[in-house]
Amino acid sequence: MISIYLPYRAFQLGANSFLVGLVGASGSxxxxxxxxxxxxxxxxxxxxxxLVLGSSLLTVLCLAYTMVSNPAVFVGLRLLEGLGWAMxxxxxxxxxxxxxxxxxxxxxxxxxxxGVGAMxxxxxxxxxxxxxxxxxxxxFCVSAMLAALLLTLRIEGRPPVHSSPLVRPKEKLExxxxxxxxxxxxxxxxxxxxxxxxxxxxxxxxxxxxxxxGTVLSAIYAGRLLAFFLSERVMRSLGLMGTMxxxxxxxxxFPLYAILPGPNQYLLILCSLVTGIGFGSVYSATxxxxxSGPAEGRGRSAGxxxxxxxxGSFVGPALAGAVASSGLWLxxxxxxxxxxxxxxxxxxxxxxxxxxxxxxxx
Length: 362
Known about the structure:
Blueprint: H1 2-12, H2 17-31, H3 34-45, H4 47-65, H5 72-86, H6 89-97, H7 103-131, H8 134-152, H9 175-205, H10 210-238, H11 240-250, H12 253-258, H13 265-290, H14 298-323, H15 330-354
């Protein structure tokens, strides 16, 4: 809800497209590097302490968002928000990844859990806007984060897992393979954050109702949730890199259709659902790949994954804000360029890995 309705609130307070782009991107400035360090810290001290700190910080920030009248202030507050999320996601992912014997099954459960909330957020938020205001939606975020904090306090602490300085080579992903995996999570972060930041404004320029564009965004998250449900079976059928390259191509459906003149509202919802399925499959395959290493290093791996998401989430809105003055439709073109670039990289790597005598491709 914050990622969608805070930029929209900035528009209401008189911010131009560039400033709204900064509001959308600033939360990722800290998130580009902080998850790597918080993930490593989680490996050492256990996840509960970081989860409590992160939840507390986000509760306070959500309350602060309701009091702001100058949209430029959002930029500074979102820097702190990035730190709060960095203390939540890597420890939470590492915690779930060791909760069972099969990391694919564990992460499927994890993704389904947060995917339900993400799917409900745009539509539920739009109902709150209609019923009260955007500020009312932000007040709901305060109560939601407070509830999360109270639940976090009930988590049983886990003894810290101390990292070994020596990890067998077979247990580590090669540097090139890791870079390719992180490029997929980068484009995921870039595209989804660009959508949540600028599609409401773009939809308004097309005279689409708030309830409609809220439904469009929710359809993306509904598709992603469906992909999370099927992810384990899909990865077993196509393999990890096969899943990522195939479904990243599928993910281009929504931005490709959205830039066409006079898009039909029902086809727009359908295309957003298809894009959600694509990105959900990419997200699942990338996260499972990153968390398939030794248990004592999974906080670090989750941190790398989240940092790449943060980098994409920063670059996307920042670039979109820069090009929006030339036409809001360009904000939908930007994800297509990123998807095309990463697809080319992934296909080239897959072909090289398939022909390598050193082993089978990912």
